[in-house]
Amino acid sequence: MTASRLEGKWIDMFVHAFGLCGVKAGDACAVLSETQTRAELPQLAELALLRMGARVFHVVLPGRPLTAPVPVRSTGASDAIGQLDPVVQALATSVFIADCTVEGLQHAAELPRILKGGARVLAISHEHPEILERCLPQATDEAPVRDAMRRLRAAQQMHVTSAAGTDLHVSLGGARIGGVWGFTSKPGTLSHWPGGLVLAFPAAGSVNGTLVLDRGDVNLTFKRYLDAPVRLVIENDHAVRVEGEGLDAEMMRGCFAAWNDPAAYAVSHLGWGLNRRARWDAMAYYDKADFNGTELRAFAGNFLYSTGANEVAGRHTLGHFDLPLRGCTVSLDGVAVVEQGVLL
User: Which residues are 51's β-sheet partners?
Assistant: First the structure.
């Protein structure tokens, strides 16, 4: 798909999403973007906010020099702000921020300072508006995610298995639990659209076992469905071996090694998808430039395993893999919440 003229229905859907975030007439609202942002997204955000009577301003940041040894994709850790204090202050004193940066502010270094000011942030996934339309958040999406968060907080152990050979043990003691339902109305919080997933950021030394990516599972960093299985042997959070004969395993080994950083091999977060409107096969319908993959992190019943930065474990790196797996059984203290890829 190519860049499109703005559709009235897309303005309507942005109004809907921002309404769920509690935006009201007179609110000071920032639209944050970069010079490489899809042009439709900040335009739609502006038009929706103006229709709602908000007082809107734009912050547009130029692209920064590349510093990473490999391309950085779909991390949720935008470096666009670059610790520029006037930008942080402007965002922190806003009521609402429509985050249209390419990578998103979810794990950006400046986010704690922005949220401390009381701003509400909605990270709008950097992809074609049609994807946002299909995954438009609804008020009823919040309750299932909150229920999953309660279950995860109450559990001591997560066990993940699959017919492909996954056998992963996760200690949840000391983990930070989060959930995203596609909107946020609470000051000092962030959500992202599309939403519909629950996550744990485990404490150091909490994850051990085997993770098997089967044919048809997804490597979102490469925006690629796997053609052949890849087996990760995980010890004390780190993938100590990446086994497999195909191209997928070879590419993962090469990307891991390029970072020359042990933290790149370690777990960032893990959890499962709850969004029944999101589709596993959606990536097949879009060009890579039109697709960021947030939908595939959230499709109902997937087990999401991600590598890279984990502040709870004291690890910081730009290296990142998001790996949604199908067909897994996810159990909390012996009780299944996902059974062979089916959300219970």
Answer: none
Does the reported pTM lie above 0.90? yes
Give residue 103's identity as a one-letter amino acid code.
E
State the Cα–Cα distance between residues 76 and 152, nearest whole angstrom: 22
Give the separation between CA 171 and CA 306, rounded to whole angstroms. 16
Task: State the SS3 of the chain.
Answer: CCCCCCCHHHHHHHHHHHHHCCCCCCCEEEEEEECCCCCHHHHHHHHHHHHCCCEEEEEEECCCCCCCCCCCCCCCCCCCCCCCHHHHHHHHCCCEEEECCCCCCCCCCCHHHHHHCCCEEEEECCCCHHHHHHCCCCHHHHHHHHHHHHHHHHCCEEEEEECCCCEEEEECCCCEEEEECCCCCCCCCEEEECCCEEEEECCCCCEEEEEEECCCCEECCCCEECCCCEEEEEECCEEEEEECCCHHHHHHHHHHHHHCCHHHHEEEEEEEECECCCCHHHHHHCCHHHCCCHHHHHECCCEEEEECCEHHHCECCCCCEEEEECCEEEEECCEEEEECCEEC
Per-residue pLDDT of the chain (344 residues; tens, 9 = 90+): 555 689 999 999 999 999 999 999 999 999 999 999 999 999 999 999 999 999 999 999 998 888 888 887 777 788 899 999 999 999 999 999 999 999 999 988 899 999 999 999 999 999 999 999 999 999 999 999 999 999 999 999 999 999 999 999 999 999 999 999 999 999 999 999 999 999 999 999 999 999 999 999 999 999 999 999 999 999 999 999 999 999 999 999 999 999 999 999 999 999 999 999 999 999 999 999 999 999 999 999 999 999 998 989 999 888 899 999 999 999 999 999 999 999 99
Contact yes or no for 45/77 (Cβ under 8 A) = no
Among 295, 282, 2, 284, residue whose Cα is nearest residue 128: 2
For residues 336 and 344, give the distance between their C-alpha atoms in angstroms, rounded to a whole number. Answer: 8
Q: Are 20 and 48 in contact (CB under 8 A)?
A: no
